Amino acid sequence: MTMQKGTEPKEAGTAVFWDRAQAQFRATADLLDLDESCRHVLGKCRRVVEIACPIRMDDGVIRSFRGYRAQHSSHRGPFKGGIRYHPEVTKEEVMALAMLMTWKCAVVNVPFCGGKGGVACNPQQMTAHEIERLTRRYTKELMPIIGPETDIPAPDVNTNAQIMAWIQDTYAMEVRSSSLGVVTGKPISLGGSVGRHDATSRGCFFTCLKALGMSNLTPATARLVTQGFGNAGYHMCKLWSQAGGKVLAVSTSRGGIYNEQGLDIEAAKKHYSDQRSLLDFKGGDQITNAELLTLDCEVLCPAALEGAITEANAADVRARIVAEAANGPTTAEADLILQDKGVLVIPDILANAGGVSVSYFEWVQGLTNFFWKEADVHSRLQEIMEAAFDAVQEESKKRGVSMREGAMALAVSRVANAFATRGLWP
After folding, report:
1. pLDDT reading at 10 higher than 70
2. All structural domains of the chain
3. Nearest to 71 by CA among 142, 131, 175, 169
């Protein structure tokens, strides 16, 4: 099975991530002058489930893994969000990501709100059979709170279409229904959507085109550097190359490669697939992740995990545009430094919202049993991303704030309006 690799923050770091997500919300609430009731409700997760997932390993030993599912808000629709498998998954991490998912759905105006899940395990040290048993047990434990109209999981770090197929099948066996809408990111043969595999990157690419246009640039006249070479990072590089652009550097958690003349992305991908590393790739020089972030380029795309750009390295970032394909790659302190430097940051809740947008398309197709052509998926995604970029830019200009603050203001105001309009029951 092909899995995405990455390096996650330690448990203390994920607690900080949750604190940062709350601080970001509080700052936005102050900007919008939200009333205390709305702050109290939207500043917390509605539900956080922590479960034990015991399974029998291939050697016969029974091991129990800790799983989580956080559901932040359902004021604008069902919960929606990925499931990640990683040794350092924590409750605070999935809570923070669930909150960010609420804002992400709102900023692109799709009728979902935020959820996130994960299991603390190391899939790189597990067989496919063990991962399947873990997935089915985890799904069984989540049965009371997931479903096509309540909470719809999707792939995330170290999970993929096959794992979504196991979730779908487990759920279907329990409810005696095919339930195409219970997950997104599943195989096309089981009701998945064409265009979903590169949706996050394609959405990020469309926002980059809008940002480049503000400076009369195109991919052909702009150099890209990407941190991360998993699904999002690879497809971002591929789309950039196909548009005539030059990709200077890419990296994984073990380091990266750099070529001033531009990398052969397909050759790098083949090397990575064969070796599970970019080390010893002949088409570029070895480079560290720290060095990669400070390369001279027009666009820097953090496409790995949280906290890549920090107070310690933000002053050395030389990109004109930072497009956040990852969730939370820039700390609040780094954000201020980049803003002072005049760097345009396309925030994560906008830049990487292509994935949830096409997940919405997939969900709609599953519920209606009517499936779209790939060209339709791409064109509708472009329409959503361009409209969202324009709305965020307008909000930013109106309030005299950064793109991140504008995106948050737009998103939180939409959720707050839904909360006020729906009222409270009972």
Report:
1. no
2. 13-21+37-178 (3.40.50.10860), 199-351 (3.40.50.720)
3. 142
